[in-house]
Amino acid sequence: MAFVFNFPDVGEGIHEGTVVEWLVAEGDIVAEDQPLLKVETDKAIVELPSPKAGTVLKMHFAAGDLIHVGDALIVIGEAGESVADSGEAQTAQVEESESVMAPPAPDAGRPVAPGMGEKHRRPLATPKTRVLARTLGVDLSGVIGTGSGGRITDDDVERASRGEVASAPSPELPVSVDGIANVTVTADGPVERVALTHLRKVIAGAMQSSKQISAHVTHVEEADASALMVAYRDLKPQIEAEHGVKFSVLPFFIKALVQCLKDFPIFNASVDEDAGELILKKYYNIGIAVDTPQGLIVPVIKDADTKDMIQLARELSDLAVRARERRLALDEMRGGSCTITNIGPLGGVFATPIINQPELAILGLHKIEQRPVVRDGQIVIREMMYLSISFDHRWIDGAQGARFMTAFSRLISNPNLLFARL
Q1: Structure letter (DSSP) for residue 264
Q2: Residue 24 — pLDDT band, cuts 50, 70, 90?
Q3: Do residues 181 and 297 both lie within one domain?
Q4: pLDDT at residue 17 greater than cutoff 90
Q5: Which among 328, 335, 346, 316 has a CA at the least distance from the CA of 255?
Q6: Phi-psi region of 115 (alpha: psi -120 to 50; beta: other; left: phi over 0)
Q7: Which residues pair with 55 in a beta bridge?
Q8: 90 and 145 fall within a common domain
Q9: How many other β-carbons are positioned within 10 Å of the β-carbon of residue 154?
Q10: Which tens digit of pLDDT belongs to each residue from 270-309?
Q11: Do 179 and 55 fall into the same domain?
Q12: Tens digit of pLDDT for each residue in 356-376?
């Protein structure tokens, strides 16, 4: 009997995904656990294996389609069997077809002006045409514009004043502008429409949710990273030569963050509001924001407190590469207790990062640059940087944020203090 494989619950909180690529075709013979398709869900692309061996009888979605947990993806049966032979498959098809309802047809004899159904869109017309409409007593909201992009012309107004109804203009055809195909000309100028990716929608939802949930506040501190950069430049060639790993300055900051999280555990916590409890985490899983061509992804370095800087460097390099190639597993992007976003290489003075829920804080690292500063009454050149911490002001007071950043800046400015605690 044919078997209907539904989109499974691939992880906590995942409700939908997008079909990226089918790895089989109808009529193919598949083995148990053979990958059937790739699905983009949350911020990862995962392969879904076949739950049984058999022949692919029917595939219900195409690449690019949005799917929800429980949707019938594929029907697998015996060789020579058809979908019609299976009541289960027929049921899946009926449910799928009934879930898509056709919109009601518009009234046949009633002209619909461009933009009707949108929220009170202001009719497109020049000031001259608006003056003419007022003179003739014509309400522009009921006039069909025949000009470019649906713009209402003087002729449209005059026809409306005589009670004549213009036929709706033909839709604008895509054109090519500056070598870009499929550009549509609107009343305000040419535009290109680009479909939002599933990842971008996930990021947008997470950012909006975080701003709605947390009372964001950002504290900024300055650090003299001169001694840290001396140590880094001394260690970098030795570590890379001996261990074959790309070594950046980021492991220093991870280690400094872990020490401060131990001293200020509220920053390594989350809140269970329903239970009325603060959850102080006794593990140090540090999220690292990675800039990818598709959008921001945050892999997590688990148990960062137990790893030396060489191990951290190796894991950072591996996670960053696989994040940009979209090869991270969902588990590698979960379980963080505090996050770092390293904005320094991109420039800017400082930023106010958004908290990665359900965490309570996110640390921002900014560019290290030579600046003149006063030391012992003398102007000297030092390698300075800004550090920022965004935190949830509902649970963390401003004074706690200030103390946290003062302690963090002290470890960065005097790496010997950091080394003493490793």
Answers
A1: S
A2: very high
A3: no
A4: no
A5: 316
A6: left
A7: 29, 77
A8: no
A9: 15
A10: 999 999 999 999 999 999 999 998 889 999 999 999 999 9
A11: no
A12: 999 999 999 999 999 999 999
CA distances from 142 to 111, 121, 133, 147, 293 (A): 9, 12, 11, 15, 45
Q: Would you say residue 111 lies in a domain?
A: no
Of these residues, 68, 198, 219, 393, which one is catalytic? 393
Same domain, 283 and 235: yes
pLDDT at 149 (0 to 100): 59
Tokens representing 276 are 């009325």
- CATH number of the domain that residue 33 is part of: 2.40.50.100
Residue 87 is assigned to a structural domain of this protein: yes
Regarding whether 312 and 250 lie in a shared domain, the answer is: yes
* Structural domain contains residue 35: yes
Give how many domains the chain has, as a whole number. Answer: 3
pLDDT digits (tens, 9 = 90+) for 139-179: 888 888 887 557 788 888 988 898 887 655 555 555 555 66
236 and 365 co-located in one domain: yes
Which residue reads 């400094």 in tokens? 256
Give a yes or no: residue 201 inside a domain.
no
Residue pair 43/204 in contact (Cβ under 8 Å)? The answer is no
60 tagged catalytic = no
Domain match, 81 and 221 both = no
Which pLDDT belongs to residue 65? 86
Degrees, nearest 5: CA angle 184-188-192: 30
The number of residues making up the chain comes to 422
Enumerate long-range contacts of 80-85, CB under 8 Å, 24 or more apart.
80/55, 81/2, 81/55, 81/57, 82/57, 83/2, 83/57, 83/58, 85/1, 85/2
Q: Domain span at residue 10? A: 3-95
CATH number of the domain bearing residue 343: 3.30.559.10
Tell me which residue has tokens 């800046």.
409
- pTM, entire model: 0.70
d(CA 46, CA 412) in angstroms, rounded, equals: 39
Give yes or no: residues 370 and 314 share one domain: yes
Enumerate residues 6+ apart whose C-beta is below 8 A from 242. none
